[in-house]
Amino acid sequence: MDDRYELSGLRGVFAEAIQRNEPTIVFELNNGRGKFLFMMFFDSEDESTKDQLFIFMRNTQRMVKLKLYGNHYKGQFYLYLEDYVKDWFKKELLIENGNPNNKFDFESFFQGLNSSIPQALPLQSKIKKLRESWSEISGKLPKEIVEEEEKTILLGDKALPEGHKPREKTLRKLYLYADGNADDITTLIENLKRLNRTVSWTNDIKKLDKAKKVKDLI
Protein backbone atom coordinates (compact mmCIF):
# COMPACT_ATOMS: atom_id res chain seq x y z
CA MET A 1 0.00 0.00 0.00
CA ASP A 2 1.22 3.51 -0.79
CA ASP A 3 2.43 5.57 2.17
CA ARG A 4 0.24 8.31 3.62
CA TYR A 5 1.54 11.85 4.16
CA GLU A 6 -0.09 14.79 5.93
CA LEU A 7 -0.43 18.29 4.47
CA SER A 8 -2.54 19.80 7.22
CA GLY A 9 -0.66 23.08 6.70
CA LEU A 10 -3.06 23.75 3.84
CA ARG A 11 -5.90 24.45 6.27
CA GLY A 12 -5.15 28.16 6.53
CA VAL A 13 -4.97 29.03 2.84
CA PHE A 14 -7.90 26.73 2.04
CA ALA A 15 -10.16 28.31 4.67
CA GLU A 16 -9.08 31.78 3.52
CA ALA A 17 -9.86 30.96 -0.13
CA ILE A 18 -13.33 29.68 0.80
CA GLN A 19 -14.07 32.66 3.03
CA ARG A 20 -12.99 35.17 0.37
CA ASN A 21 -14.69 33.25 -2.45
CA GLU A 22 -11.50 33.00 -4.51
CA PRO A 23 -10.98 29.25 -4.98
CA THR A 24 -7.49 29.36 -6.48
CA ILE A 25 -4.42 28.60 -4.37
CA VAL A 26 -0.91 29.10 -5.76
CA PHE A 27 2.35 29.29 -3.81
CA GLU A 28 5.92 28.06 -4.14
CA LEU A 29 8.09 26.24 -1.61
CA ASN A 30 11.80 25.50 -1.72
CA ASN A 31 13.13 22.46 0.08
CA GLY A 32 16.79 21.60 -0.22
CA ARG A 33 17.55 22.02 -3.91
CA GLY A 34 13.95 21.31 -4.89
CA LYS A 35 11.54 23.99 -6.11
CA PHE A 36 7.87 23.07 -5.75
CA LEU A 37 4.94 25.11 -7.07
CA PHE A 38 1.73 24.11 -5.24
CA MET A 39 -1.63 24.73 -6.91
CA MET A 40 -5.26 24.03 -6.11
CA PHE A 41 -8.13 25.01 -8.38
CA PHE A 42 -11.63 24.29 -7.15
CA ASP A 43 -15.19 25.34 -7.79
CA SER A 44 -18.33 24.36 -5.89
CA GLU A 45 -20.09 23.92 -9.23
CA ASP A 46 -17.32 21.87 -10.89
CA GLU A 47 -16.72 18.41 -9.42
CA SER A 48 -13.88 17.73 -11.90
CA THR A 49 -11.48 19.91 -9.91
CA LYS A 50 -12.45 18.69 -6.44
CA ASP A 51 -9.69 17.48 -4.08
CA GLN A 52 -6.90 17.94 -6.62
CA LEU A 53 -3.45 19.19 -5.66
CA PHE A 54 -1.00 19.96 -8.45
CA ILE A 55 2.71 20.21 -7.69
CA PHE A 56 5.02 21.48 -10.41
CA MET A 57 8.69 20.62 -9.95
CA ARG A 58 10.77 23.35 -11.54
CA ASN A 59 14.15 21.60 -11.81
CA THR A 60 12.75 18.57 -13.62
CA GLN A 61 9.75 20.32 -15.25
CA ARG A 62 7.38 17.61 -14.04
CA MET A 63 3.78 18.11 -12.96
CA VAL A 64 2.18 15.69 -10.54
CA LYS A 65 -1.55 15.59 -9.77
CA LEU A 66 -2.37 14.22 -6.33
CA LYS A 67 -5.73 13.49 -4.74
CA LEU A 68 -6.22 15.05 -1.33
CA TYR A 69 -8.22 13.06 1.21
CA GLY A 70 -9.93 14.12 4.42
CA ASN A 71 -12.50 16.75 5.34
CA HIS A 72 -10.80 19.94 4.17
CA TYR A 73 -13.31 22.13 6.00
CA LYS A 74 -12.06 20.54 9.22
CA GLY A 75 -8.42 21.05 8.26
CA GLN A 76 -7.80 17.47 7.10
CA PHE A 77 -5.48 17.10 4.11
CA TYR A 78 -3.55 13.92 3.38
CA LEU A 79 -2.34 12.05 0.33
CA TYR A 80 -0.76 8.80 -0.79
CA LEU A 81 2.35 8.54 -2.96
CA GLU A 82 3.10 5.84 -5.48
CA ASP A 83 6.71 4.76 -5.90
CA TYR A 84 7.19 6.52 -9.23
CA VAL A 85 6.02 9.82 -7.69
CA LYS A 86 8.48 9.38 -4.84
CA ASP A 87 11.18 8.92 -7.45
CA TRP A 88 10.09 12.20 -9.09
CA PHE A 89 10.44 14.04 -5.79
CA LYS A 90 13.93 12.63 -5.27
CA LYS A 91 14.97 13.66 -8.78
CA GLU A 92 13.62 17.18 -8.18
CA LEU A 93 15.70 17.37 -5.01
CA LEU A 94 18.71 16.34 -7.15
CA ILE A 95 19.23 13.28 -4.99
CA GLU A 96 21.03 10.39 -6.64
CA ASN A 97 19.94 6.87 -5.74
CA GLY A 98 23.51 5.97 -4.73
CA ASN A 99 23.77 3.56 -1.83
CA PRO A 100 20.45 1.69 -1.45
CA ASN A 101 21.05 1.53 2.31
CA ASN A 102 20.78 5.32 2.53
CA LYS A 103 16.99 5.56 2.28
CA PHE A 104 15.43 8.97 1.80
CA ASP A 105 13.15 9.95 4.69
CA PHE A 106 9.93 11.04 2.98
CA GLU A 107 8.16 11.50 6.31
CA SER A 108 10.66 14.19 7.36
CA PHE A 109 10.58 15.70 3.87
CA PHE A 110 6.80 16.15 3.92
CA GLN A 111 6.90 17.44 7.47
CA GLY A 112 9.29 20.11 6.22
CA LEU A 113 7.03 21.00 3.30
CA ASN A 114 3.97 21.01 5.55
CA SER A 115 5.51 23.37 8.09
CA SER A 116 6.55 25.76 5.29
CA ILE A 117 3.05 26.23 3.82
CA PRO A 118 1.91 29.84 4.28
CA GLN A 119 -1.18 30.44 6.37
CA ALA A 120 -2.39 33.39 4.28
CA LEU A 121 -2.08 34.33 0.61
CA PRO A 122 -3.17 37.69 -0.84
CA LEU A 123 -4.93 37.23 -4.18
CA GLN A 124 -2.31 39.55 -5.68
CA SER A 125 0.46 37.09 -4.82
CA LYS A 126 -1.48 34.20 -6.39
CA ILE A 127 -2.01 36.19 -9.58
CA LYS A 128 1.66 37.17 -9.84
CA LYS A 129 2.89 33.63 -9.20
CA LEU A 130 0.45 32.12 -11.71
CA ARG A 131 1.36 34.68 -14.36
CA GLU A 132 5.10 34.22 -14.05
CA SER A 133 4.75 30.42 -14.13
CA TRP A 134 2.08 30.02 -16.81
CA SER A 135 4.41 29.47 -19.76
CA GLU A 136 5.95 26.50 -17.91
CA ILE A 137 2.80 24.91 -16.54
CA SER A 138 -0.07 25.65 -18.95
CA GLY A 139 0.53 22.60 -21.14
CA LYS A 140 0.78 20.34 -18.10
CA LEU A 141 -2.54 21.26 -16.45
CA PRO A 142 -5.99 19.84 -17.31
CA LYS A 143 -8.07 21.88 -19.74
CA GLU A 144 -10.85 22.38 -17.18
CA ILE A 145 -8.65 24.68 -15.08
CA VAL A 146 -9.08 27.53 -17.59
CA GLU A 147 -12.07 27.72 -19.91
CA GLU A 148 -11.36 28.01 -23.66
CA GLU A 149 -7.70 28.75 -23.10
CA GLU A 150 -7.18 29.64 -26.76
CA LYS A 151 -9.38 32.73 -26.31
CA THR A 152 -7.11 35.31 -24.71
CA ILE A 153 -8.53 38.68 -25.83
CA LEU A 154 -10.83 40.26 -23.24
CA LEU A 155 -13.93 41.73 -24.91
CA GLY A 156 -15.79 42.96 -21.86
CA ASP A 157 -18.23 42.03 -19.14
CA LYS A 158 -21.78 40.77 -19.45
CA ALA A 159 -24.73 40.03 -17.20
CA LEU A 160 -25.61 36.48 -16.24
CA PRO A 161 -29.11 35.01 -16.19
CA GLU A 162 -30.82 34.86 -12.84
CA GLY A 163 -29.69 31.86 -10.85
CA HIS A 164 -26.28 31.69 -12.52
CA LYS A 165 -22.92 32.70 -11.06
CA PRO A 166 -19.64 33.57 -12.81
CA ARG A 167 -17.55 30.45 -13.38
CA GLU A 168 -14.16 30.30 -11.75
CA LYS A 169 -12.48 28.85 -14.84
CA THR A 170 -13.68 31.90 -16.80
CA LEU A 171 -12.67 34.48 -14.19
CA ARG A 172 -9.34 32.72 -13.69
CA LYS A 173 -8.35 33.81 -17.20
CA LEU A 174 -8.25 37.38 -15.90
CA TYR A 175 -5.25 36.38 -13.78
CA LEU A 176 -3.41 35.37 -16.93
CA TYR A 177 -4.51 37.45 -19.89
CA ALA A 178 -6.12 40.67 -18.68
CA ASP A 179 -4.22 43.89 -19.31
CA GLY A 180 -3.99 45.10 -15.73
CA ASN A 181 -1.98 44.78 -12.56
CA ALA A 182 -2.87 42.37 -9.77
CA ASP A 183 -4.65 45.04 -7.69
CA ASP A 184 -6.92 46.03 -10.59
CA ILE A 185 -7.74 42.41 -11.40
CA THR A 186 -8.54 41.70 -7.75
CA THR A 187 -10.98 44.63 -7.70
CA LEU A 188 -12.57 43.56 -10.99
CA ILE A 189 -13.14 39.98 -9.84
CA GLU A 190 -14.70 41.21 -6.59
CA ASN A 191 -17.03 43.51 -8.54
CA LEU A 192 -18.02 40.83 -11.04
CA LYS A 193 -18.97 38.42 -8.27
CA ARG A 194 -20.85 41.11 -6.35
CA LEU A 195 -22.83 42.14 -9.46
CA ASN A 196 -23.25 38.58 -10.74
CA ARG A 197 -21.53 39.32 -14.04
CA THR A 198 -18.88 37.49 -16.03
CA VAL A 199 -16.43 38.34 -18.81
CA SER A 200 -16.32 37.34 -22.46
CA TRP A 201 -13.23 36.41 -24.47
CA THR A 202 -12.30 35.93 -28.11
CA ASN A 203 -9.37 34.74 -30.21
CA ASP A 204 -10.43 36.85 -33.21
CA ILE A 205 -7.80 39.55 -33.70
CA LYS A 206 -10.28 41.48 -35.85
CA LYS A 207 -12.12 42.29 -32.64
CA LEU A 208 -9.07 43.85 -31.01
CA ASP A 209 -10.47 47.34 -31.45
CA LYS A 210 -13.45 46.32 -29.31
CA ALA A 211 -11.33 44.70 -26.60
CA LYS A 212 -11.28 46.40 -23.21
CA LYS A 213 -8.66 46.88 -20.54
CA VAL A 214 -9.34 45.91 -16.96
CA LYS A 215 -9.57 49.54 -15.81
CA ASP A 216 -12.37 50.10 -18.34
CA LEU A 217 -14.45 47.49 -16.51
CA ILE A 218 -13.83 48.47 -12.90
Tell me what you see in this structure.
The chain has 218 residues and is α+β, with helices and mostly antiparallel strands. 33% of the residues lie in helices and 22% in strands. The protein contains 7 helices and 8 strands, in the order βαβββββαααβααβα. The chain has helices at 11-19, 83-92, 106-116, 123-137, 168-177, 182-195, 214-217, and strands at residues 3-6, 24-31, 34-41, 52-57, 62-67, 78-81, 153-159, 197-202. α4 (123-137) crosses α6. 19% of the residues are buried. The model has no long low-confidence stretch (mean pLDDT 88).
Low-confidence stretches: none
> Any idea what the radius of gyration is?
19 Å
Please list the strands of the largest sheet in the order they lie side by side. 2-3-4-5
**Straight-line distance between termini:** 52 Å
Q: Give a count of the beta strands, DSSP E runs of length 2 or more.
A: 8
State the major sheet.
4 strands, antiparallel
Shape: globular
- Percent helix, as a range, is 25-40%
**SS strand fraction:** 15-25%
Structural category: alpha+beta
Helix-strand sequence: EHEEEEEHHHEHHEH
Assembly type of the chains comes to single chain
Number of helices: 7
Mean pLDDT: 88
